[in-house]
Every structure is written in C-alpha cells, then in structure tokens.
Specification:
Length: about 200
C-alpha cells in the first residue's frame, strides 16, 4: 500500500477510489501447534450473540483506519441476523480488561471458512499481538471437515497485511481491481477515516 495515491487511482468526478483486492487461501492446516499467548493477560474468546451497538463500536474502532464499511452499509436487522447466525463466529482478542482485536469467521459455505474481518484496535498495533492473534484464529478456523480457509486484503489495508498473511501460510490465488464509492462521502465513515487514502472530491 502506498501512502499516496496516483491520479489514475482517484475518480474525483465519481467520488471513487481504485482498490486492488488480493485473495489468499490455505488448503491444509498449519503444521505447528497453536501459539502460546505472548503475555499472561492476553486471552482469545468467542463473542456469542454480541450486542449490535457494542459490536458496531468495536468494528468502527478496528476498521475506520482501513476504511471498513461493509457492516455499516447493511441495515441493523441484517447485521444482527448475521452476527447471531450459527454459521458466523465473532472473536475478540483481550488484553486484561481491554479489547485489542476483532476477528470474524464465516462458515456458511460447505468445507471452507472465510476470514470475513480481522484486525487490531489502533493502540495495540505494533504491540506484538498480531502474529499470535492471526495464528490462533487460523487454528480455530480449521476443523475436521474444512478443506479451505481463505481471506482477502486490499490496498486500503495495513501496508504489511499481505506479507503477514503469507508468512502464516496463506497463498495468493486471485487479484481484482474495483472502483469503490468512497464511504466517507456517503456518510458511512467520518472524513478523518483512512487518512492514507485521499478523499476523491
């Protein structure tokens, strides 16, 4: 991810920016055992039937920096139904009493699991927790009938995201480019979100 966008990546007339999406997959479970927590007060736990407002607050806290907007364009009823579905898992990384990260696993497709969202809250980025969190969630994703675990990242994500996913065993298998109607111009995110992506206006 570049900190500056080229003119051809910005459509000011349409209020859009160009996003390059990379899809990665893992076709076998990791050979190494699940990692140990890096500190005694670090804990990973599934968040069963989260309160919608509490969930959206955490989603924004983790995702605003990277222009996450998918859950914000859905209706409250749609999001709540998804979060309470048996096929959708929401996990939180905690450091003591603090919530440090969010991960969502989508098990709605037979024999595969998608990392729908994964990220740390801003103040815990660079604190030595990301590798533990990601590797732990990879182990959680795999079960007896799973044959594929996959995810995608994009040019709005953390600049190290693609390399980090590859380090834990994900392999790129497809790439596509799309033009995104800027969620800041649509009122889904504040104008201060995603400062590394110029607002196309």
């Amino acid at each position: 991810m570049s900190e500056t966008r080229r003119d051809e990546d910005i459509d000011r007339a349409g209020g859009r920016y160009r996003s390059v999406i990379t899809y990665l997959e893992m076709l076998a479970p990791p050979g190494a055992p699940p990692p140990a927590p890096p500190r005694d007060n670090v804990q990973l736990a599934r968040w069963s039937r989260p309160d919608l407002d509490d969930y959206l607050a955490l989603y924004r806290r983790v995702g605003e920096r990277w222009l996450w907007y998918g859950r914000l364009r859905a209706t409250r009823d749609e999001t709540e139904r998804l979060l309470h579905s048996d096929a959708h898992e929401v996990w939180r990384l905690r450091v003591g009493a603090d919530v440090a990260g969010l991960c969502e696993l989508d098990r709605s497709r037979a024999r595969e699991v998608e990392f729908a969202y994964f990220g740390l809250v801003p103040e815990y980025i660079g604190a030595g927790l990301g590798g533990f969190f990601l590797r732990s969630m990879v182990h959680e994703a795999w079960s007896d009938d799973v044959q594929r675990v996959w995810l995608h990242t994009c040019t709005e994500d953390h600049p190290d995201a693609l390399a980090v996913y590859q380090r834990v065993g994900f392999v790129p298998w497809a790439e596509e480019t799309e033009w995104v109607h800027d969620p800041r111009l649509r009122g889904l995110l504040p104008r201060t979100a995603g400062p590394h992506v110029p607002i196309p206006e």
